[in-house]
């Protein structure tokens, strides 16, 4: 199990941008982003596989969010553009060390607040 440290959250106006970072203490197979809004269940945002470098996204963020990674630094980024108030949530990065199975490492979460 690796340790994950997140950063980059903050307050931004609708239409603005933020970039979140998540650094892992070691190598992982896949790293993903999740978010949890007040009163809502945690939802999947997107992930990236280190083996391919190809990201995947949930429909609600496609075209606005971009996941990228720096393998040498064991760090993934979530670039969020055209932010909407409904993007307001605590964002968590996560990692797993295998193709299948549960995410076994989680970041501490970082708050993203989008004002209207």
Q: How would you state the average pLDDT, rounded?
A: 96
Task: Please state the CA-atom Rg, rounded to the nearest Å.
Answer: 13 Å
Structural category: mainly beta
| SSE sequence, one letter per element | EEEEEEEEEEE
The number of helices is 0
Helical amount: under 10%
The separation of the N and C termini measures 39 Å
Biggest sheet statistics: 7 strands, mixed
Shape label: globular
Unreliable spans are none
Strand content: over 45%
Please report the total strand number as a whole number.
11
Model description:
With 116 residues, the chain is an all-beta fold. It is 0% helix and 52% strand. The chain is built from no helices and eleven strands. The chain has strands at residues 4-7, 10-13, 18-24, 30-36, 43-49, 55-57, 65-70, 75-80, 89-96, 105-106, 110-115. A hairpin with a 5-residue loop joins strand 5 and strand 6. The model has no long low-confidence stretch (mean pLDDT 96).
């Amino acid at each position: 199990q690796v340790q994950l440290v997140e950063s980059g959250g903050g307050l931004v106006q609708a239409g603005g941008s933020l970039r979140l970072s998540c650094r892992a203490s070691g190598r992982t197979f896949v790293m993903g982003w999740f978010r949890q809004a007040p009163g809502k269940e945690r939802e999947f945002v997107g992930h990236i596989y280190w083996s391919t470098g190809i990201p995947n996204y949930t429909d609600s963020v496609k075209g606005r969010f971009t996941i990228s990674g720096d393998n040498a630094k064991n760090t993934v980024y979530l670039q969020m553009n055209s932010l909407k108030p409904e993007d307001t949530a605590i964002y968590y990065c996560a990692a797993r060390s295998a193709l299948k199975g549960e995410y076994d490492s989680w970041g501490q979460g970082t708050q993203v607040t989008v004002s209207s």
